[in-house]
Amino acid sequence: MTLEIIATTAFYLTLFLLFINFYLNAGLEPKNADEGLRGTIALAATVSIGGAFLSDQEFRKILLGKIGFFYAIFILLYTCIGYLQNETMFILSDFAAFIGFIVGFAMFRLIVKSCNPKIQLLALISVPTLLLYHSLSLLASKTNIIALGTENRITTYAESQFLMFLQVPLAIAIGILGRQGLLWKIILGGLLGLSFFCTVIWVSKRSALIYLLLLVILSVLVLSYRLSNGLLATQSSILKLGQIRNILFLIAVLLLIGIFTDFILDIQQSASEYFIFDRFAQIESGDKSSQLRVEEAIAAVQSMQNLEWLVGRGIGATFLSPVLNQAATWSHIGIFTFLLKGGLVLFTFVIFNLYFKFPLLFVKALLKPMCFEPKRRAALLTIFPGVFSWAIALLMVGHLHILIIIPLGFGLGAYLHFKKYGISL
Questions:
Q1: Enclosing H/E stretch for 232
Q2: Where would I find the H helices in 199-304?
């Protein structure tokens, strides 16, 4: 019981420290926001890792094993490379981001060892979602709310960090809480809807629409597999003949309703009034935002030379960003951030795993279930939707922040746990 209290306390304290500065800056224009309380990220890392180390034998075993050893070598190597040529301020900023991998892993283990794991998982999703809504609603109150989402939009520039942070926990929550009672489903659906409303309608963020839809579609597909004793059935319920007929009938009914209501209410015209559709239309006419992102990626690549192409410029590496008009440690097209820091070695590793190996494993787990050990297959199918939507987001959002790296460690922790015990908390 004592260990459960330690884990629960450490989890909520970590959550508080990660988001306190976002709360203090809620409702402020990005240009008016300040640093807030200093040292909160370092404290969050200390509390999460320390709490997990004290309360969880499994975390100690993994942290002191091969995974912890190789990640420590990775951090040490690229910190040394960065120390030789980069400024201390940027090194510390990058280091805080990359330590997020261990923080994410620790946070999952804290949830597992806490008093009511499902409550903590829901809290992990609720806090950033409600905080995002709180901040945007304060900004919205200072503008024309009626025209918001149709004629103009608002932004805190933290939406991308929040959404990428949520991708993997949301996928896991859909896989676990989505199979619980009606109340769990209502709360989870409400949080998803609120995220969608904030980022797609109010912020009119194109990337959010893409990877939120991808996350929901893939997660619901996995949700169609019956769960028993922590293992997923080998055949989806939607692939059964009777279910296919019902689904086709439902689609036909929805199409007829859509055509009829569109004829009466002109829904297509109404939907096109939303600002986000204008933003998608801007791509065809030469969207300045997209052009600047490409120019920024080119600037990052052109800043590299000689051996840097192989091993990168290390943690703290910067380049002159044409988007920010100043030295930047990350590119908006996030995969080029890994090229800048770790060269072709790290870049190739990230590309291969995120966009080739993991998707192929997911498809294989769907189509050839007998090729996998049942618990490993269940782990892959549950976690992959979040990891892949995170990877797609990385192609459009590149902020190098601890909140963006945490989901990778969280996903690894979930995979190792589910692979050993099945889909349960």
A1: strand 231-232
A2: 206-223, 241-265, 267-271, 275-284, 288-302
Whole-structure pTM over 0.85, yes or no?
yes
Mean pLDDT to the nearest integer, 309-329: 86
Residue count of the chain: 425
pLDDT exceeds 90 at position 53: yes
3-state secondary structure of 228: strand
The CA radius of gyration of the chain, in Å to the nearest whole number, is 22
- Strand spans (E) along 109-194: none
Asked if pLDDT for residue 254 goes beyond 60, the answer is: no
Torsion of CA 211, 212, 218, 221, to 10 degrees: -160
Contact predicate 70/101, CB 8 Å: no
Tokens of 181: 């009672």
Q: Which amino acid is at 47?
A: V
Report pLDDT digits (tens) over 100-131: 999 999 999 999 999 899 999 999 999 999 99
Instruction: Annotate 300-353 with DSSP letters as a single string.
Output: HHHT--TTHHHH-S-TT--EEETTTTEEESS-SSTHHHHHHHHHHHHHHHHHHI
Residue position matching structure tokens 């520039």 = 157
CA distance 108 to 425: 10
CA-wise closest residue to 376 among 388, 394, 362: 362
Mean pLDDT of the chain: 83
DSSP string, 65-124: SHHHHHHHHHHHHHHHHHHTTS-HHHHHHHHHHHTHHHHHHHHHHHHHHSSSHHHHHHHH
Each residue's pLDDT tens digit, 344-376: 999 999 999 999 999 999 989 888 888 889 999
DSSP assignment of 41-63 equals HHHHHHHHHHHHHHH-HHHHHHH
Rounded average pLDDT over 273-291: 58
